[in-house]
Amino acid sequence: MCNKTKQYNGVIEVDKLNVLVCDDDIAIVDALEIYLKQENYGVVKAYTGIQALQALSEQKIHLVLLDIMMPELDGLLTTIKIREEINVPIIILSARSEDTDKITGLNFGADDYVTKPFNPLELMARVKSQMRRYTALGGLATDSRVLKTGSLELDPEAKELRVDGEDIKLTATEFGIMLFLMKNMGHVFSTGQIYEHVWNEPSYSAENTVPVHIRRIREKIEINPREPKYLKVVWGIGYKIEKY
Amino acid sequence: MDTKLRSIKYSTGAKVAAFLIVWLCVMSAVGSAVFLLYHHETINCKSYFDTYKFKNEFSTLVSNAVEYNVKLKSEANIRSSGDAEDVIKSNLQRYSLIKNKLSGSVNFAYCLKNTSTGEIVSNIKAENAPALIQKQPSVVYYDQWAYNSNHPFGTGITQMLADTPYQIYAAVIEPLKPGDVFYDDFMSYFEIKSLANNITILLIASIILTVLAFTYLIIFTGRREPGGEINLSFIDRLYTDVYSTLVFFAAIISIAVVAHISYSSPGQVETIVIALIFGIDVLIGLSYVLSMIRQIKCGQIFRNTLIYKIFELCFNGKTFKAWTLLLLSGYGLVNGILFAITAASGDGGFFIFVFLVIPFNVAAIYFTAKALLSLSQIMEAAKEISAGNLEYALDNSKISVAFSAFAKDIQSIQGGLKKAVAEAIKGERMKTDLIANVSHDLKTPLTSVINYVDLLKQEDLNNEKAGQYIGILEEKSARLKQLIEDLIEASKASSGNLNVSTEKVDLHELVMQACGEYEEKINKAELDVHIAADEEVSITADGIHMWRIVENLLSNVVKYSLPHTRVYINVAKSESYGLLIVKNISATPLDLRPEQLTERFVRGDESRTTEGSGLGLSIAQSLTNIQGGRFKIEIDGDLFKVTVEIPLWEEI
Q1: Do A151 and A176 sit in the same domain of this protein?
Q2: What Rg do the C-alpha atoms of chain B give, in angstroms?
């Protein structure tokens, strides 16, 4: 399983966005190469942290996919070293699924954390999301009326919701809920409170109307609805929009 | 034969016999030795005439004969001497005394010759008296110049003969005739001489026997079998120092008694008494020596002393040292003496009171208070340690000696606890690491499997069967992924390797949120969920763990419920618990015990065809337990009922 090659390989293509894939498992690196090429990205492959750093110093890389448990230099230390140099997006791929591992990885400077075994489609969605943010070069000059968190934007006037610049189609109720939550970003609201504000009538027995709507919104705006980035469930208390 | 001999050697009878032999032999040896010592002069002499007794007796008689014939001469001579009255009287007395003595000594012969007159005086009538006398081996000769150092009174005789013309020959005429002291002494001399050989043999035999029997006793005393344990007799229970003192006093007393008796001339009765006392002393001494030997064999000769026991009691106490009691009584004693002095010394009492009694008591109170202060330090340490502060340092140097052992015990308890905690933490960490490593090793290859199955699916295989197979592979790898995740979660939950951060959680809200998440699946399973809730049920729980519990229950409901049935979810509260009750109708008969369902990998359907790991209920139960709740499953026919109880939120 451990790779013997001393050198990273893959040559960048000037007209393409390049992704550095670094994992000591060759099979995973090869599979990711296929997926990334399907999405029309250039791929540079590395098998240790050292090789990854070497590749980064020699090539123009737009995104890094990095494993944690690797020989020579592990993913976390590699992340720190990369962050000392450049601001390229880093997505950590790891079999370590503890919350503490995720928090550590993100604190060390990673932009996203995906646990193995991952869904390839989900990973590609996350790569695209990070890539869009990175290449947007500061993004559009946003209207002050537009509500924004991370790459989630809500325009109350145009009744539009965008994630990574892509329009999301919402129903009127869903948009109402999003508007209410985005206006009070970071605050947690119970099912009853959301119902009363959005439906404008007291909630005697709201049952699971609000939760069902929220789940549907999450399915539309989140890459992995079970691990939402923006619309978060605070279990037993309510819901909130995460403020970035 | 051999074993018989051996058993005899260890038997009590043999030991008693040996003991008696030693006793008797010591007695006889000492008796013989005393006899031989007493008569050693007699025994050492070659003949009767060499004995001191003879020489003494003989010399006295020679002296008497000279005095009688040279000095006193006759009664008339004494009277006419012109001496004082009392001198004459005493000389007369002496004259008759010597006369009697000389006439009673039938074997004594002397021949006194006046060299100037040629007159010869002798006490024997024989004609050839001088020749007869000179022929005897015991003959002695004196004149005014003769010097005979062999004879006790030789110089006295020479002095008496000084400036006189007399010369004397004296001897004991052999063969001796009965009737005087020489004959009696001569007879007893021969008796002693003939006895002496036998008694010497007796002495040697007694010593040899004593040594043999005593050696036997030294080796075998206390032993009942070869190499067996040392059996101590009742006498050995006496503290050795007490025993030694008693024996010492017995010896002193008997020496005093014997000395007292033998001071006056020892007769028949006294000799028997002395022998008796000696016999008892030997008995005591022998049993004392054997007892000491047994104690040495046991290695307890020093431990079995009263001094040792007192020392041990005072200084080896574990928690409380008895010497503090000694100190207390010492304090009382000193105080008593000081008060007695104060009372006795009248006018000076006031000064003694001020300069001795008060300082002494103040010092005593100071040291007691200091000791008690260190007790309070120990108590403080114990309190800290019991509260969980294992790093609390108890300063040993400030602890009074009275409680230092106690302080050390507390410290060793602390050390033990620290070690146990460290070990528990290490064990927990190892467990967590193991879970993390196993999960990593399982997940990494699974990642490839899932990825390549997905890539294969994208390939245009132009083969219907291949597509079908890939579908199965995809399904099963997804199942494997779920299984691994559940397995890790179950092991973490049941080993307590999960963080629980409790907060106020609205159970009704949580159930609604969960049902919102499961709405689609519930609809797909064609179930009708009814939620009935009390006004507000706030529980103390970790929201994420609670969600996992409810999710697992709902997942269970969706998987195993009979389609087109109703599912009832009740949220209520008891006195101190928030209740979540989920009731559904099972699609398949449930013929297992409720507890079996929470065992890992037990699933309602024995065929195990449906998706799921069989860990759902087990995880739910573990998660309930780590939040301090209770998890109960009831089965009534096809009715499946789960009750989760979580402690209610308490406003502080």
Answers
A1: yes
A2: 59
**Domain contains A11:** no
A22 min Cα distance to partner chain B (Å) = 14
CA distance B85 to B130: 37
Long-range contacts from B9-13, C-beta under 8 angstroms, 24+ separation: B9/B216, B9/B220, B10/B220, B10/B223, B10/B224, B10/B225, B10/B226
User: B112-128 pLDDT, tens per residue?
Assistant: 888 888 778 777 776 77
Q: Which residues of A touch B440 (CB under 8 A)?
A: 69, 95-96
Residue A234 to chain B, least CA–CA distance (Å): 7
The Cα–Cα gap between A105 and B461 comes to: 40
Task: Tell me: cis bond preceding B175? Omega within 30 of 0 counts.
Answer: yes
> Which of A100, A135, A170 lies at the terminal end of a domain, its last residue?
A135
Q: Do B506 and A32 touch (CB under 8 A)?
A: no
β-partners of residue B121 are B112
Looking up tokens 């008997």 gives: B254
* CATH code for the domain of A100: 3.40.50.2300
Its ipTM equals 0.77
- Sign of the CA dihedral with B183 first, then B185, B186, and B190 last: positive
- Which element (helix H / strand E) includes B540? strand B538-541
Nearest CB to A215; choose among B441, B449, B517: B517
Q: Is the pLDDT of residue B318 over 60?
A: no
Domain ranges of chain B: 43-174, 234-316, 323-386, 500-647
Element (H or E) spanning B584, and its range? strand B577-585
What does the alpha-carbon distance between residue A212 and residue A219 come to, in Å, rounded to a whole number?
11
- Choose the CATH number for B500-647 among 3.30.565.10, 3.90.1150.10, 3.40.50.11060, 3.40.50.1970: 3.30.565.10
**Model's pTM, two decimal places?**
0.51
B302 half-sphere exposure, CB direction, 13 A CA radius: 2
- Residues B25-79: pLDDT tens digits? 888 888 888 888 888 877 888 788 778 878 888 888 888 888 888 777 777 788 8
pLDDT over 60 (residue B234): yes
Question: Would you call B481 an interface residue with chain A, using a CB distance cutoff of 8 Å?
Answer: yes
- Enumerate the β-bridge partners of residue A115: A94
Angle, helices A191-199 vs A172-183, to 10°: value is 110
A57 lies in the same domain as A161? no
Across chain B, what does the average pLDDT equal? 82
Upper half-sphere CA count for residue A196 (Cβ side, 13 Å): 8
| Total domains in the fold of chain A | 2
DSSP B353: I
Q: Which H helix or E strand runs over A90?
A: strand A90-94
Residue that finishes a domain, picked among A109, A135, A161 = A135
Strands of A131-237, DSSP E: 147-149, 152-155, 160-163, 166-168, 231-234
B517 touches chain A (CB under 8 A): yes
Q: Are residues A25 and A131 in the same domain?
A: yes
Extract the runs of DSSP E, i.e. beta strands, from B173-288.
Answer: none
- Is A60 within the bounds of a domain? yes
Task: Confirm if B343 and B352 have CB atoms less than 8 A apart.
Answer: no
Q: What is the dihedral of CA B404, B410, B414, B415, to 10 degrees?
A: 50
Chosen from A26, A196, A235, A240 to mutate, greatest number of chain B CBs within 10 A: A235
Residue A3 placed within a domain: no
- Looking at beta carbons, which residues of chain A come within 8 Å of B476? none
What range defines the domain where residue A183 resides? Answer: 147-241
Residues of B in contact with A34 (CB under 8 A): 455
Query: Chain A: which residues have CB within 8 Å of chain B?
Result: 25, 27-28, 31-32, 34-35, 69, 95-99, 115-121, 190-192, 206-208, 210-215, 233-239
Distance from CA of B525 to the nearest CA of A (A): 16
